[in-house]
Amino acid sequence: MKKIYFVSLALFSVVMVSAQDFTKRLSEARTSYAAGKLDDSRFAMQQMLQELDILTGKEVLKLLPQKMLDQSVRAGQDNVSGASGFVGVLIHREYGGKAAYDSTAIQLDIISNSPLIGTINALLSLPFGMGSNPDQKIVKVNGYKALLSKTSGSNDKPEFELQLPLNNSLITLKAPGRSQDDILKAANTLPVSDIAKLTQ
């Protein structure tokens, strides 16, 4: 019940914070439309939606855990950025590491409108799982299907990447130098259902 209340409150705050920008962009779109400037009207609407996506991304960051495995969040590396057109918003968070985009840090990315969603959903819906590829397998993360892939590394130290499609968003988790069990443990600390509600 508390989670539903928190998600509702977060959505309400997103709407309140963005209300002025939303109203401004909506007014621009209507004015341009009335003047017959359809391209300007479309641009104002795209800007409005992108601002809402970025504000939603910032709310998603607030839901994410402050610690993953034995690593604390590097809040200075938190980033929400918008992309126009093909891909939506990228939400990035790191845990541990020493420098920006440190290759040893646990990296979490959530991308809305990811072009990979269809491919991963197709792989997850195969009736016999991933039997033909020993480097990939289907796992469950908080009740949601995800794809766990061996991405690189030697046979002694393989590296894994977890990809979880969620509505129109894709959650990707990388934990260099960590075991398959570690990456699953880290993924299960994510509030997946709350993220799904915010990003739908």
Structural account:
With 200 residues, the chain is of the alpha+beta class. The chain folds into two domains: 2-60; 68-199, no CATH class. The chain is built from five helices and nine strands, in the order H-H-E-E-E-E-E-H-E-E-E-E-H-H. The protein has helices at 2-34, 38-63, 117-124, 180-187, 192-199, and strands at 67-68, 71-72, 79-82, 89-95, 106-112, 136-141, 144-153, 158-166, 169-174. It has a seven-stranded antiparallel beta sheet with strand order 3-4-5-9-8-7-6. Strand 6 and strand 7 form a beta hairpin. Helix 1 packs antiparallel against helix 2 (38-63) and helix 2 runs antiparallel to helix 5 (192-199). The longest helix has 33 residues, at 2-34.
